[in-house]
Design brief:
This protein is α+β, with helices and mostly antiparallel strands and about 450 residues long. Helices cover about 55% and strands about 15% of the residues. The longest helix is centred in the first third of the chain and has 53 residues.
Length: about 450
């Protein structure tokens, strides 16, 4: 059923602005075209009625004038009696066929009725594209007279098509303005939602404009404040739990350490250490949503990363800087240092060594890549390992798999400072952790 509905909508544009533009413009053009067609038909009928009502009287008068003129003077009057749709010929005219259309037969019958039977009126068609027919008269002196008719209706003025084109252009402009005014608040709201952070320092949507837009903007700002308040409450709750747990855990460890040494005692001490580690990591994850109270600063990213690499090298760790470009950016320095340290530690732990790169992938986009030659991560789990408490190992041994919060903390910290963390398997084996910064 979903495939059928999708195919039915496949012809529609994807964006709401394009759909609104198409619907409004098509509706207005249909209405404008219908109005123009009705106007054309009405003018055509009016012009035809006027022509039929005046043609026979005009022709009757003209034939009577020509009939009364001396034969030598008739040719001088022909130009005076000529009209847009017909003119007179002194002579028998051209041979032709019987009248081909009902309209031509009707016109000839009207003329014949107007001038009377003395002129022996008859008609014939001499062409059809465009239609041309002749009406033949025999004057009282026996001279032939021919009226050649070329029906041409001009129900609209010659300048009207240009007015129609201007109206279409005006419709385009008005439709564009209407769609822009209708969809711009949605675009602004979408951009604000994309840039929204877990804290209350995200972009605020202007509450000016129409009532519906103002209400939506106010609801969005209120939602952002509510999310920030809930996260702060979560942080306070976790901090309180950590504080309350630290004291009994410490008392338990002291009591266990006072017991006689035994394998059971050591296992209990190890469990207490792991419990303390879980509590600290849980609080760290909650704090990472806010990026701490640190203020963003503008720094030389290449020099910042190099100093961190040198610190590891001073400690004898296998960390190298393979590529670096001169670039500055505005970030929370301590949060970024913690993320990079986490990623480098993981690379050393699982790959034996870490390789760091600073690259510019776009004029305003920088990346910091931490690579290793470890076992990598299955493709289907590259995104899942960034979730809290997700571990590739089934055990909860801190020495092998940890608490499952390290990468989640790193991803959340990077998100809080406006960046993005993603993982990718490396060609030839290994893992790449790529930090993208604006």
């Amino acid at each position: 059923m979903s495939d059928v509905s999708t195919s039915r909508r496949s012809w529609l544009p994807r964006s709401m602005a394009s759909r609104l533009y198409l619907i409004i413009f098509a509706g207005l053009m249909l209405a404008q075209g219908l109005s123009f067609a009705l106007l054309y038909m009405e003018r055509m009928q009016s012009a035809t009625a006027v022509m039929f009502n005046t043609l026979e009287h005009d022709v009757g008068t003209s034939v009577a004038v020509i009939d009364r003129l001396p034969a030598a003077e008739r040719s001088r009057w022909l130009n005076r009696l000529e009209r847009d749709n017909y003119f007179y010929i002194l002579g028998p005219g051209e041979p032709g066929k019987h009248l081909a259309t009902d309209r031509s037969a009707y016109v000839v019958s009207l003329i014949a009725k107007e001038v009377g039977p003395d002129f022996h009126v008859y008609g014939n068609t001499i062409a059809m594209s465009p239609e041309q027919y002749q009406v033949h008269f025999t004057l009282h002196d026996g001279s032939p007279l021919t009226l050649q008719v070329t029906p041409r209706m001009k129900p609209v003025a010659s300048w009207l098509p240009f007015v129609f084109i201007l109206q279409v252009i005006l419709l385009l402009i008005c439709t564009w303005l209407a769609v822009r005014l209708a969809t711009r608040p949605l675009s602004t709201l979408a951009k604000a939602a994309d840039a929204m952070t877990p804290t209350a320092d995200g972009p605020r949507v202007s509450q000016e404009g129409p009532t519906e837009v103002a209400r939506a903007a106010k609801a969005f700002n209120t939602m952002q404040d509510r999310i920030a308040r809930h996260l702060k409450e979560r942080l306070h709750i976790l901090a309180a739990i950590s504080h309350d747990l630290q004291t009994p855990i410490t008392r338990m460890r002291l009591r266990v350490e006072a017991l006689d040494a035994s394998p059971e005692q050591q296992r209990i001490i190890d469990d207490l250490h792991e419990l303390e580690h879980l509590v600290r990591e849980g609080v760290a994850y909650a704090r990472s949503a806010h990026g701490g109270s640190e203020s963003p600063v503008r720094l030389d990213l290449s020099a910042f990363v190099e100093s961190l690499v040198f610190d590891y090298q001073d400690m004898g760790q296998p960390v190298t800087m393979s590529e670096s470009v001169a670039a500055t950016t505005t970030v929370r320095a301590q949060a970024l240092r913690r993320v990079l340290a986490n990623l480098i530690d993981n690379a050393i732990k699982y790959g034996g060594a870490a390789e760091v790169q600073v690259q510019r992938v776009a004029p305003d986009v920088l990346t910091v890549t931490v690579s290793d030659r470890g076992p990598g991560i299955p493709e289907g789990e590259l995104e899942q390992v960034l979730q809290p408490f997700y571990r590739l190992e089934s055990s909860r041994n801190r020495d092998t798999g940890g608490a499952g919060l390290g990468l989640a903390i790193a991803a959340q910290l990077i998100s809080s400072i406006g960046g993005e963390l993603r993982l990718a398997n490396r060609e030839g084996g290994g893992l790449q952790a790529i930090i993208t910064l604006p």
